[in-house]
Amino acid sequence: MEALKASGANWVQIVFQAVLPSSITYLISWTFMRFEINFSVALAMGAAAGAGGIGFDMFMASSYYYDVREIGAITYLILTFAILLELMAGRIKKKLRVQK
After folding, report:
1. Is the pTM of this model over 0.70?
2. What is the pLDDT of residue 80?
3. What are the mean pLDDT values of the chain's consecutive 10-residue runs (100 residues total)?
4. Distance CA 14, CA 66 (A)
5. Which of 43, 57, 58, 91 has the fewest CB atoms within 10 Å of its CB?
6. How confident is the model at residue 76, as a pLDDT?
7. Distance CA 57, CA 46 (A)
8. Is the dihedral angle over the CA atoms 93, 26, 79, 47 positive or is it negative?
């Protein structure tokens, strides 16, 4: 940042040339972590309060008509989604680290 300021770069150039490249992996990690937290909270709200979504489907399958196969399928679907999300975040961060 000091070198960019000394060479006459303006604020936008400093942000896009120094700040973002050094912090983009942290921003992506934080964004994916918040998305995973929001996904799990939405799932819990649907399962506990019947708020809708896949958590509500799991709630209905487990307490009203007790379909073990459907509970297992929903659980595997949630697990698969979480793993794919983690793999996608890892690939994005790996690509950004190589480009530096």
Report:
1. no
2. 92
3. 82 87 84 85 77 79 83 88 86 73
4. 58
5. 91
6. 92
7. 8
8. negative
Q: How far apart are CA 11 and CA 4, in angstroms?
A: 10
Q: Which amino acid is at 99?
A: Q
Q: What are phi and psi of 22, to 5 degrees?
A: -85, -20
Cα dihedral value 61, 62, 66, 67, nearest 10: 50
Q: How far is CA 65 from CA 16, 51, 57, in A?
A: 55, 18, 11
Helical spans, DSSP H, in 15-67 = 20-49, 53-59
Lookup result for tokens 């399962």: 47
**Spatial distance between the Cα atoms of 42 and 19, rounded to a whole number of angstroms:** 33
- 67: tokens are 């379909």
> In a 10 Å sphere around its CB, with 0-12 CB exposed, 13-18 middle and 19+ buried, how is residue 64 labelled?
exposed
